[in-house]
Amino acid sequence: MTTPALLPLSGRRIPTLSPGAASFPHHRATLRLSEKFILLLILSAFITLCFGAFFFLPDNSKHKRFDLGLEDVLIPHIEAPKGAKHPGGQVVIHGQGDHDEHRHREEEESLRDKIRADHERALQEAKEKLRKSRDELRAEIQTEKSKVLEDLKKEGPKPLPPVPMPKVVGVNDGDPGEPDIKEKRDKIREMMKHAWDSYRQYGWGHNELKPLAKKGHSTNIFGNSQMGATIVDALDSLYMMGLHDEFKDGQEWIEQNLDFSVNAEVSVFEVNIRFIGGLLAAYYLSGQEVFKVKAVQLAEKLLPAFNTPTGIPWAMVNLKSGVGRNWGWASAGSSILAEFGTLHMEFVHLTYLTGNPAYYQKVMHIRKLLAKMDRPNGLYPNYLNPRTGRWGQHHTSVGGLGDSFYEYLLKAWLMSDKTDTEARKTYDDAIEAIERHLIRKSNGGLTFIGEWKNGHLERKMGHLTCFAGGMFALGADGSPDDKAGHYLQLGAEIAHTCHESYDRTVLKLGPEAFKFDSGLEAVAVRQNEKYYILRPEVIETYWYMWRFTHDPKYRQWGWEAAQAIDKYCRVSGGFSGVKDVYSSNPTYDDVQQSFFLAETLKYLYLLFSSDDLMPLESWVFNTEAHPLPVLHLANLTLPGSQAQR
Ligand code: DMJ
């Protein structure tokens, strides 16, 4: 065997390797010969390096794959043939002790043999190549190129490993029993159908719909893509509501058209919560593989966003080039807390479904990094610079820019079947600081959550902040120092305040933001805060409060909101936001938001369903209302066994 180190370096042997050189003018032939020689040298050095690396690099298989706590739940259930490569790149190790050692040595030995053989073959091929003429080489390269392309076309996406399906319970029906409630539920279903049919007719394949102009619509969060955001966002609502033909239609569009190889700069957060969340939920509800495959394809496209000096992802990423950047408006080039802090649920499920630890590692890295940082007054500022790892402006809110970060801490704990106690503790500490600095009672007795700006409390609350009522109720059970009653009460108070913000308007729909200042209570002051864009947060809180208390007022409040939406937002081409909830003659914004189908109508439908539809012991809703199952080994059934539907 000729090893690369023993190859003669003398130029005299080169002519024997390149007979074709004779047909070229002398100076070109000389040039070609030296090029070949250099090529051969590089090749030899490379092979030597590979050999060296194989024998001298530390044996990674002896290290723990990742030391973050949930790996037992997420990884080992994936069965792979002995010594097979794990999709995440690690060799899966079975068994323990001596037996393992022995098998490990055998595996290593056979791997060495394979490398030796590969090396010899590569050397032989290199020699043969050097004997060929330029034209021959060109033709060969062309054939190889076409073959690779052909194979790629034939192959399609790589199959994912089989994983045990978590028990999926209560994904349809939910008949409430009482005829008047059933009637209300039917009305919500009819509204969903109107929203969907209109989009189907006028905006199909576009991200959203312009219900007055009756054409497609999109915003900068989706870049210039046309990825059918409404279809993906609506799927699980359609499924729960028993709109199966519509669901099938959506599925077909996804199978045939949803493609992520587009030159579009999208929001990592929005794509995660709407697309990955929506696809994963559709997968768990229906069991259709296509949704899982698409979710994973998309997730791979998001990963380059994490290539920053700190591992805190960019806000936006170009799906084609993988280049990331932050919003121009964000303080000091920062990433946003509610954006990089709202990936955990989906990424844990991605690791669970693919066996690739990268997703889990990325989000756990964010958590660890945040845990090490100083927090002014125990609060998390909304801005963090991904280059320097320093906070930007000290602005804390439970509404826009901060909201779902807190939500995902709580839901990480719930989704882990309450085993991720680190997440729970982080949530408890954060909420404790929020209560201390941000939550106040107005003169009129309304509890509100303000915003903290550089040491000053702004007595203003956003529609987005209203989700927190539901969050406090959801987190009540398991709160420290026996404060469950306190948090349920806090949830009820926030629900009441947010209801007031609806009730004090002309349209009985809530404004985008409302004040508690200078005698004003729960009303918007500035013109640009008076709009309602079909947002879900208030109804979301009604639903959680209903589930935990069964106080009929929550159904009553939800019904008031549903009627107002139907009366003031419904147009012949779908549903539109309105620009001023204090005007009896409002103008439309002409956008049917995808979250209207994903969240607002879903929470309303759940509010008028029985509790056995999507029970909260088994499902955790992501921030776009896409349900993901609780993950725990004890909760898993093996692949092939009949999942309960
Ligand atoms: C949704 O996309 C999500 O609920 C997100 O967390 C916040 N904003 C919208 C709805 O208002």
UniProtKB/TrEMBL annotation:
The EC number(s) this enzyme carries: 3.2.1.-
Keyword match Translocase: no
Primary role: Involved in the maturation of Asn-linked oligosaccharides. Progressively trim alpha-1,2-linked mannose residues from Man(9)GlcNAc(2) to produce Man(5)GlcNAc(2).
Residues covered by region (Disordered): 153-180
Enzymatic reactions: N(4)-(alpha-D-Man-(1->2)-alpha-D-Man-(1->2)-alpha-D-Man-(1->3)-[alpha-D-Man-(1->2)-alpha-D-Man-(1->3)-[alpha-D-Man-(1->2)-alpha-D-Man-(1->6)]-alpha-D-Man-(1->6)]-beta-D-Man-(1->4)-beta-D-GlcNAc-(1->4)-beta-D-GlcNAc)-L-asparaginyl-[protein] (N-glucan mannose isomer 9A1,2,3B1,2,3) + 4 H2O = N(4)-(alpha-D-Man-(1->3)-[alpha-D-Man-(1->3)-[alpha-D-Man-(1->6)]-alpha-D-Man-(1->6)]-beta-D-Man-(1->4)-beta-D-GlcNAc-(1->4)-beta-D-GlcNAc)-L-asparaginyl-[protein] (N-glucan mannose isomer 5A1,2) + 4 beta-D-mannose; N(4)-(alpha-D-Man-(1->2)-alpha-D-Man-(1->2)-alpha-D-Man-(1->3)-[alpha-D-Man-(1->3)-[alpha-D-Man-(1->2)-alpha-D-Man-(1->6)]-alpha-D-Man-(1->6)]-beta-D-Man-(1->4)-beta-D-GlcNAc-(1->4)-beta-D-GlcNAc)-L-asparaginyl-[protein] (N-glucan mannose isomer 8A1,2,3B1,3) + 3 H2O = N(4)-(alpha-D-Man-(1->3)-[alpha-D-Man-(1->3)-[alpha-D-Man-(1->6)]-alpha-D-Man-(1->6)]-beta-D-Man-(1->4)-beta-D-GlcNAc-(1->4)-beta-D-GlcNAc)-L-asparaginyl-[protein] (N-glucan mannose isomer 5A1,2) + 3 beta-D-mannose
Family: Belongs to the glycosyl hydrolase 47 family.
Transmembrane regions listed in the UniProt entry: 37-57
Keywords recorded for this protein, A-Z: Calcium, Coiled coil, Disulfide bond, Glycosidase, Hydrolase, Membrane, Metal-binding, Signal-anchor, Transmembrane, Transmembrane helix
Pfam families linked to this entry: Glyco_hydro_47
Gene3D superfamilies according to UniProt: 1.50.10.10
GO molecular function, one term: mannosyl-oligosaccharide 1,2-alpha-mannosidase activity
Pathway participation: Protein modification; protein glycosylation
Coiled coil: 105-147
Cystine crosslinks: C466-C498
Cofactor(s) for this UniProt protein: Ca(2+)
One record GO biological process: carbohydrate metabolic process
Topological category with respect to the lipid bilayer: Single-pass type II membrane protein
Residues annotated as binding Ca(2+): T623
Protein name stated in the entry: alpha-1,2-Mannosidase
Species for this entry: Oncorhynchus kisutch
Gene Ontology CC terms, in alphabetical order: endoplasmic reticulum; extracellular exosome; Golgi membrane
